[in-house]
Amino acid sequence: MNAKADDTRDKILDAAQDILVTQGAMHLTLDAVAQKASLSKGGLLYHFKSKEDMMVGLIHRQIAGMNQELKDQVFNDPEPRGRFARAYLNVAYQKDECENPSQKLCSTLIAVIANNPKLLEPILTQINSIQERLQNDGLDPTSAFIIRLIGDGIWFNQMLGIPVDPDMIANVLQRVQEETGSCL
Amino acid sequence: MNAKADDTRDKILDAAQDILVTQGAMHLTLDAVAQKASLSKGGLLYHFKSKEDMMVGLIHRQIAGMNQELKDQVFNDPEPRGRFARAYLNVAYQKDECENPSQKLCSTLIAVIANNPKLLEPILTQINSIQERLQNDGLDPTSAFIIRLIGDGIWFNQMLGIPVDPDMIANVLQRVQEETGSCL
DNA sequence: GCAAAAAAACCGTCTAGACGGTACAGTAAA
DNA sequence: TTTACTGTACCGTCTAGACGGTTTTTTTGC
C-alpha cells in the first residue's frame, strides 16, 4: 500500500525536522534521522535516495504546510482588503512555541542554505508567490513591501532564536490592522 | 612585528568570509581557508587555535565593521530624531554588491547558527544593543520595533540571496524618512 | 480461496573519503 | 632569541552512500 510508505516518509521528515529544531543543522545526519524515526539507515535511503533528496522532501512539505496556514487565515478574515498581509504576519509569528510551522521552516532554511544553496529554488518560488499575493491584496505596493519585510524580520528573529516580545508583536499587528483598514 | 601578524589574521578572515559568501558554510574547511589565504594549515592554526576560534574572530570583526558603518551614518545625519533608525536601514541595505558588510555578516551568521549556536552570543548582544539604541531614538516604541523588523527583513532577504528591488527599498526608506519626521 | 511468485519495505554492515586537529622538524626575518 | 611561519605526516572520528540480504505485503495463477 502507498499509505504505509507515505506514513513512513512522514515519520522520517518529522524526525529530520525535530533534529533541525532541537539540535541544529550540523547534527542532521542520516543515522540520527533514521534512529529518531525508528528505522534503519537502509530503510531511510529506500524512501529518500540521498540526504539531499530528503531535504527536498522536507522543504516541499514545509511550504505546503505554510500555504495551508495562509489559506486558513485568509479564509477566516472577513475583510478582503489586506487580509493576505495580515495572514502573512500571523503565520510568521505564532504564539504557541511547540507547533510553530514558521520556526520549523526557518530551521529547515538554515540547513538548506548551509549545506546546499541550490536547494533554495522552491523556497524562492514561494517567496515570490507571497510577494505577488501581497501586491494583489488591495494595498499600495510600498505598503505591501513593508509588510513583507516586517514578516521576514519576524522570521529572521525566530531563526536566530531571539525572543521577540509578544506584546510588541501584538502592537505591530494591531497597527497594521488599523493601517490596512485605511492605507498605511 | 605585530602589524604583520594582524595583517595575516585579516587575510585569513578575508578568505573565510569569501568562502562563506561564495560557497556556503559547508565548504568552510580549514584547508580551504588556508589555501585561499595563501597560507599553510599550520600557519592558520598558529593564528587561530581552532576553527571555532577563527569563527569568533570573524564575528567580532563583522560586528565592529557594522558598528563603524552605523556610526558614520549617524554622524552624517543632521536630524537627530530617528537618525539611528535611518542608519540601521541604510546599513542593512547597501547598493554596492561587492562591499556589502551586511551580506557578509549574514553569511557568517548562517555558518555560526548551522555549526555552533553557542557562538551566537556576541551577535545577540549586538542585536540587543541595536534594539536599545532604536528605542532611544526619539520614536515611539512600536515604530522603533517596526523599523527594526523592516531592517531585519532586509537582512533576511539578502541572506537568502533574494534580489530585492532597489526602487522598492528606496520607497520604503523614503516613507520611513517622512514618517520619522512626524511620528510613523 | 490459497499457494507461489513478485514487488515493496526494510535491515545492518562496510567502505572510501573528508575533516579537525596534532606533532614536529625546519626556515627566514626582526 | 623570539616571532612568524612552512610542510608533511599522521590520527581519530564522522558520514554519505553502496550493497547484499531479509521480511512483509501485494499480485497472480490455478
Explained architecture:
The structure is a homodimer of 184-residue chains. Chain A is mostly helical. Helix content of chain A is 74%, strand content 0%. Chain A is built from 9 helices and no strands. Chain A is elongated and about 55 Å long. The A-B interface holds A 24-26, 109-111, 113-117, 120, 123-124, 127, 141-142, 145-146, 148-157, 159-162, 168, 171-172, 175 and B 24-26, 109-111, 113-117, 120, 123-124, 127, 141-142, 145-146, 148-157, 159-162, 168, 171-172, 175. Chain A binds a DNA duplex (30 and 30 nucleotides) through helix 1 and helix 3.
Helix content of chain A: over 70%
Question: The biggest beta sheet of chain A, please?
Answer: none
What structural category characterises the helix and strand content of chain A?
Answer: mainly alpha
Segments of chain A where pLDDT lies below 50 for 5+ residues? none
**Number of helical stretches of at least 4 residues of chain A:** 9
Q: Please, what is the oligomeric state? A: homodimer
Task: Tell me, briefly, the overall form of chain A.
Answer: elongated
How many angstroms separate the termini of chain A? 53 Å
Radius of gyration of chain A: 18 Å
Largest interface pair: A-B, 37 and 37 residues
Beta percentage of chain A is under 5%
- The helix-strand sequence of chain A is HHHHHHHHH
| Total strand segments of chain A | 0
Could you report the average pLDDT of chain A, rounded to the nearest whole number? 85
